[in-house]
Amino acid sequence: MERRRFLLFLVALLCFAGLLEASPGDADPVYRACVEQCEKTGCVGDKCFQHCNFSSEGNPIDGPWYLQEPLYLQWKQWDCRSDCRYHCMISREEERQKLGHKPVKYHGKWPFKRSYGIQEPVSVALSALNLAVHFQGWVSFFILVNYKLPFRPNKKTYYEYTGLWNIYAIFAMNAWFWSAVFHSRDVDLTEKLDYSSAVALLGYSLILAIIRAFDVRLEAARVMVAAPLIAFVTTHILYLNFYQFDYGWNMKVCVTMGILQLVVWAVWAGVTRHPSRWKLWVVVIGGALAMLLEIYDFPPYWGLVDAHALWHATTIPLTYLWWSFVRDDTEFRTSVLIKKKK
Ligand SMILES: [Zn+2]
Fold first, then answer.
1. What domain range includes position 144?
2. For residue 176, how far is its CA from the centre of ligand 1 (angstroms)?
């Protein structure tokens, strides 16, 4: 009964994900006109930006020849755009606040106030902490597997999923690294890197969930699980980067992949006799609750802490517990396999 209720809750989550749309802030014609104007003139009201010294053809008005390199020009254009977006957003939000309107999102994000040039200091710090916890978890897993547990006669580990968890650690640390970069400065490039890394991590962890929960040990069967998912995730990343950066669609893809892996782990935690299955339960329930924060997104308090930042905070203890489960799983599988051999 309990399990059925939990699954219903997950299905409800999935339905709400269908209601999500792209950000209304950047669809606002006043904001759009402001950014367009700013990219031409380099000014919002009486504030002007040094990165926007462009003539209408996109050539810099001044500066020596070496500053006219295409790469540097592009970088400057990115910076100009991000300054324009930021100041247009702040001025638009001030106008809206006077009219008594609630904050809206711009380009998938709430209007944050920068501090020391960092856009979302809280999210940056939390992303860095997530990265650190993953690194610590991975190192302890690595030490356990390579120095504490016995090897098979062919010098391989008894645990069948060692390589998969090592790759997982790399995907996870990569994603948190780009998350920290993106939250400190939101430009097209950092945004694409962050979103792409997050999608890659979600896709890979879904593959890992299926392979571990269903105990897929045959190489051919693993390929059959992984290939369609890798194809889908790759297509999705290419679509985001080179065709259309669609926040609403990306959110649906991410939430669906996230819920699918939670369901896989939850079902497994329900049927397995694994000694550490309670850790799985905590991570699954905690992960589902944390996902609610990502879905029932609220605007930042004091221009600093929003639902997304809190979501990054909740993943820290969950990650710690997660790697502790991985270590338990390693010891459990190793002891089972050694017993079988004797
Ligand atoms: Zn983030």
1. 2-21+115-341
2. 8
Residue the block writes with tokens 């905070």: 313
Beta carbons of 53 and 42 less than 8 angstroms apart: yes
Secondary structure class of 287 (helix, strand, coil): helix
One domain, residues 87 and 204: no
Following DSSP, what letter does each residue of 80-103 receive, concatenated? HHHHHHHHHHHHHHHHHHHTTPPP
Instruction: Please tell me the distance from the alpha carbon of residue 82 to that of residue 84, in angstroms, as a whole number.
Output: 5
| Cα 314 to ligand 1 centroid, rounded to whole Å | 12
Query: Considering the domain boundaries, does residue 78 fall inside one?
Result: yes
Could you identify the residue written with the tokens 């500053």?
A: 67
Q: Is the pLDDT of residue 243 over 90?
A: no
127 falls within a domain: yes
Q: Could you report the per-residue pLDDT of 8-30, keeping only the tens digit for each? A: 555 555 544 443 434 778 888 89
CB 201 within 8 A of CB 171: yes
Residue 106 lies in a domain: no
251 belongs to a structural domain: yes
Is 159 in the same domain as 37? no
Tokens 């978890």 sit at which residue?
Answer: 137
Is 239 found in the same domain as 150? yes
Q: In angstroms, what CA-CA distances link 259 with 82, 155, 288?
A: 33, 37, 8
Q: How far is the CA of 309 from the centre of ligand 1 (A)?
A: 7
Q: Token match 């065709």: residue?
A: 243
pTM check: above 0.90:
no
